[in-house]
Amino acid sequence: MVAAAAVLTAGLLVFHRAVPNSVGRAGSLLESFLPWLGVVVVVLLAAALLRRSATALSALLLPVAAWTCLFGGLFLPEPRAGARDLVVVQHNVSDENTDPAGTARALADAGADLIALEELVPAALPVYERTLARRYPYHEVRGTVGLWSRHPLSGARLLDIKPRGITEPWSRGLRAVVRSPHGDIAAYVAHLPSVRVGPGGLASANRDESARLLGRALDAEELEPVILLGDLNGTVDDRGLAPLTSSMNVAERGFALSFPAALPLARIDQVMARSAAVRHLRTLPETGSDHLPVAARITLDRSARPERQA
User: Fold this and answer.
1) Whether this model's pTM surpasses 0.85
2) Do the beta carbons of residue 186 and residue 224 sit within 8 Å?
3) How many other CB atoms sit within 10 Å of the CB of residue 87?
4) Which of 50, 131, 158, 265 has most Cβ atoms within 10 angstroms of its Cβ?
5) How many Å apart are CA 217 and CA 161, to the nearest integer?
6) CA distance 214 to 209
């Protein structure tokens, strides 16, 4: 029984894309929590040791190898900083945050070149602008998303990633050009629609449609490098984000679970790049939000362009 469960767990890790999404988006639901199959492996290991089963212990080598191949590299040490590195911070500050000034100060203390924020509400926006102004003299806000920068910004515009099923006012995308010391960078900030888990499975249709719209905008972007920061309401393993992960580099190192802040179970706050590499990703201390901020170190490298996936 333990050996069979071990083989099944290994199969889910290796062939998670084969799990269909037709009923309750079961595939995306599995992929949202795919790293947690490691806990299943630990439980099976304990059961195998209690039973003193050599067969079960041997079978456990399969899921251990699969999990290590998928996620082991994320735990490697952060590589040494380089001359063409940028530090960026991504944070959904929450529209219910009661301490926007404290949140802004904490983010500024990270020493980033760029800060992307989501769920900016009108009452709190002036607080973020005032608190971040000294260290980040350049910023652009469109709808409820914003970008703060140490370097000049230009060409800022609203990015239309609104799904057809949302009829109320909804502006959650921004594109701007960062005039960095290393050259111009296309910076995108996005907040994709929320997903819900219920009796019918994972409700992610709006998120998936918004991801497709964002993916088309990124594919049409002519400027390189490109940096995407946002609350994407999905993990990089979730096939719903495939329009993004198929053409963008994701973090090479750093586990950085970001949501919910009180007990992080998944990283849905993402930093991706094209013609650049996301060398390391880490979480920052908790703020007044239900998300943890994430900070990433990006190396600008035009050779770091991933091959597109089918």
Assistant:
1) yes
2) yes
3) 17
4) 131
5) 9
6) 9
Helix (H, G, I), strand (E, B) or coil at 85: strand
User: Do the bridges between strand 226-231 and strand 183-191 make them parallel or antiparallel, or are there none, so unpaired?
Assistant: parallel
Q: How far is CA 234 from CA 44, 94, 180, 230, in A?
A: 28, 17, 29, 10
DSSP state of 4: H
Conformation bin of residue 243: beta by default, left when phi > 0, alpha when psi is -120 to 50: alpha
Q: What angle (nearest 5°) sits at the alpha carbon of residue 196, between those of residues 160 and 163?
A: 20
For 60-116, write each residue's pLDDT tens digit: 999 999 999 999 999 998 888 887 899 999 999 999 999 999 999 999 999 999 999
* Residue 28 identity (one-letter amino acid): S
CB 298 within 8 A of CB 278: yes
Q: Given strand 153-158, what is the order of strands in its sheet?
A: 153-158, 173-180, 183-191, 226-231, 269-274
- DSSP one-letter string for 282-301: EE----SSSS--EEEEEEE-
Count helices and strands in the chain by DSSP H and E runs: 9, 13
| C-beta of residue 190 within 8 angstroms of C-beta of residue 212 | no
Query: Do the Cβ atoms of 94 and 103 come closer than 8 Å?
Result: no
Please enumerate in sequence order all residues whose Cβ is within 8 A of that of 108, keeping only pairs 6 or more positions apart, or say none: 115, 131, 132, 135, 136
